[in-house]
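Entry type: protein chain
Record version: 2
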Amino acid sequence: MDYTIMQSNAGLRAYARTQLAGKWFASAIVTLVYMLIFYIANVLVSGIGAFIGFVFEFQNTDILSIFIKTVVSSAITGPVTVGYFWYFMYIARGEPTALQNLFDGFRLFSKVFLVFFTQTLLIMLWTLLLFVPGIIKGCSYAMTFFILRDNPDIGTLEAITQSRRMMNGHKMRYFLLQLSFMGWLLLCIISAGIGLLWLLPYAYLTTANFYEYLKQNRAS
């Protein structure tokens, strides 16, 4: 991997485009499957929330509803989301990939569930304080899923802590990196979301390369 080109966000994006050469279509198919699973899971979670509201109509169920929906979402979308992150981590490292890699998170289901649920809960709690702290913590925890892949035996809080340490001094750069995809996101909205099939692989692979760059810097 050429780490020198990754010293700038433009270099990270350019390198990702190079790595996706010949892999755009396969990545788009994986993204389509991921989006369909995510959509079905959200419909299911919304249904559960509506059911809770109906059963406990005269009680204050906001906290209970949010908690249950977060648990269900973490159990369904958590492993798939983590698998989606790992899929592009494999591409970043030049490793072979296949559609079934999308479900690699289920191999470590209990660990992935705990990490996904804890991270989601922490970001939600920080966001409840103020929107900006939620964004900052989201950036701090951004490398957690990659760290989990490299350290499958790591503890839940330790994975999140390692991400926070890795992102020290790099949160603003990461935020600007993600912000650089916003223009493409607007075009995806205009295209009724079809463009996401190509934007998400581009963005996630760039993020995977960002992790590889940070990891290399820590090792050197």
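Comment: The chain has one domain: 4-214.
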